[in-house]
Amino acid sequence: MKHTINAIRFFFIGMIFLVLLTTSCAKESQDAAVQPQSQSELMLGTVCRITIYDHPSDKAFADAFARIAEIEEKMSLHLDTSEIAQVNAAAGSHPVQVSEDTFLVVQKAIEAAQLSDGAFDPTVGVLVTAWDIGGDNPRKPPQEEIDQLLPLIGYDRVTLDENKYTIALQDTGMMLDLGGIAKGYAADETEKILRSHGVEKAIINLGGNVLTIGSRVDDTPWRIGVQNPEAERGGHVMIVGLEDKALVTSGPYERYLELNGTIYHHILDTKTGYPVDTDITSASIITDDSFLADALSTAVYSLGMEAGIAMIESIEQVEAVFIDRQHNLYITEGLKNGNISYTISDTAFTLQESF
């Protein structure tokens, strides 16, 4: 059965918690003349919420949500009129010219695929469509079908022309899916829109992809919770202090299919065609760029603990928090060194020095 409605319900529970964390200072501060305002829209297959703390205006909200809608219209796998749908329809035939938005996102997706040696791969669309977890017709494809689809996955068979902004898929049947990176791009673009309206203190939350603008009204870092993968949204394991940074988490706990007592989550292994088999229950990325964080969170979840941490440690100004089934917490060196403040809020989870 599907769990998208529950995920949206949990999102709103989580947003109550997030607002309690981030607005408490506004209520207590004598200097805060502007009350925070929030607006939400259902976009990108999730609830997108923007909260502005210093210069809220109807125009800022309208322009921000219009930008998110524009990105969705260009990059959705599920819209027949999207640019990605046009690229997929022309697979094995001819290149398709796309907008700068779509080209940049596909280009970044290919870079993330190269960095992770295919653990993140935007050509996973054929598997995403076959499983349709979180969609209208979730199913477990038969092994014969999976065997036929696996040869259609390969980021090295995507051709990009930077001069013409064209994208070509080498083989008929290949499909791009930007679901693992488009929300991050949308969050970064939303930040640009808000800043153009003079906003310097805000939180953008696109279905759990959180991007902070500036700091709280008392100039202390935003207190953002790292989701407990075993709890409803709003239950947190750790609270991190963020200023002008993104926190993006990947895990199996929100979108999944349950059949005969077996749970199949939505993060698919491009080598086996089945959901990734890992001891990790959550992988969170913290960095300045939500665009990058979105792709990396999926990649490190797929890579596993040791390889995932090694990859993150090789990238400057990127930190990560991993949680496993044994309730162990693993953090990267920047967090250990105090570059980003944090507190463990659930004593059932234990911080480990090494894995």
Present the secondary structure layout:
Layout: H1 4-28, E1 37-43, E2 46-52, H2 58-75, H3 83-89, E3 96-97, H4 100-115, H5 125-131, H6 143-149, E4 158-161, E5 166-169, H7 182-196, E6 202-206, E7 209-213, E8 222-227, E9 236-242, E10 246-250, E11 256-259, E12 262-265, E13 280-287, H8 290-303, H9 305-313, E14 318-324, E15 328-331, H10 333-336, E16 342-344, E17 350-351
Parallel strand pairs: 15-17
Antiparallel strand pairs: 1-2, 2-6, 3-5, 4-5, 6-7, 7-10, 8-9, 9-16, 10-13, 11-12, 13-14, 14-15
Helix pairs in contact: 2-7, 4-8, 7-8, 8-9
For the structure shown, list the relevant keywords.
globular, nine-stranded mixed sheet, 10 helices, alpha+beta, 17 strands, single chain
The major pleated sheet works out as:
9 strands, mixed
Strand order of the largest sheet: 1-2-6-7-10-13-14-15-17
Beginning-to-end CA distance, first to last residue: 35 Å
Strand content: 15-25%
Assign the structural class, choosing from mainly alpha, mainly beta, alpha/beta, alpha+beta, or little secondary structure.
alpha+beta
Uncertain residue ranges: 1-13, 22-32
Radius of gyration of CA atoms, rounded to a whole number: 20 Å
The global form is: globular
**How many helices does DSSP assign?**
10
- Count of strand segments: 17
Note the run of SSEs as H and E: HEEHHEHHHEEHEEEEEEEEHHEEHEE
> What's the mean pLDDT score?
89
Helix content: 25-40%
